Amino acid sequence: MPLSDLQKNIVALLRQKKAILLAHYYQRREVQEIADILGDSLSLCIEAAKTDAEIIVFAGVHFMAESAAILCPDKTVLIPRPDAGCPLADMITPEQLQKARQSHPEAAVVTYINSSAAIKALSDICCTSANALNVVHSIKDKKEILFIPDGNLARYTALSASAAIIPWEGYCPVHQSLNIDDIIKRKADYPGAPVLAHPECTPDVLRAADFVGSTAAMLEFVRKASQKTFIIATETGILVQMGKENPGKTLIPASENMICETMKYTTLEDIYTGLTNMTHIVTLPEDKRLKALSSLEKMLALAKSPPSTP
Ligand code: SF4
Predict the structure, then answer these.
(1) Of 60, 110, 153, 253, most Cβ neighbours within 10 A?
(2) Residue 146: inside a domain
């Protein structure tokens, strides 16, 4: 598809300002089409940390742009829609985490990247859905792990962890909305099609899935699989990239309702206006940034080392 005039203008503006556009797989199609880097939370974090660009425009939700600002203090990080939040990230406050830490003084705190900088600053290490198992396995000296804020990811990780996982009962409303009846119906409609589910889905859904993994892992699965039809249990934005990579395959959303409203806030107009006016720059107090950086850097250091086993 040829780019629209607005898409072309944004690309020209990005180059003119030595800026880079990072976009999550759940963004609108037209935003994904002009992203310099399209990815999941982990890969976008890694790319943000190593880019030479002077300006990072983050098409995603707030905690993602904040993570880029934590990792890149020498860059200007813009979020075109500062109101694009993540309800899951809002399900724990610093006060609640401090209380939980007091109740479990011996526990390590593993924090899903879908969290605010204030929460990361109070954590021992971060994780994403792509590396949660590896992060948990890397903690050898603790018998208990307080895993926040996603309860479903915590329970999924607990299945193969040697430490006791204490889940925080937060959830992603998009993945929580998918229920086992949706999966049963799709399996009946598409017999033989494997179900790929994101670990933010409920335990019932994950038990019924043929493969559980992050968005990047799902993309890899579909690329390599010999099957022709797949049932995809995550936010439907992923189908844009998956479809592009697999023109001969049929991709069925597990539910058409799996749409993250805030991920879809960012429009091309928001990106153009934000970059033109240099508005909505993400800033953090330096002490908070440094504390949050420590938990992110521990995770990124693990990403560079080979995966550990339980
Ligand atoms: S899909 Fe869920 S976890 Fe991701 S940004 Fe939306 S609400 Fe947050």
Answers:
(1) 153
(2) yes
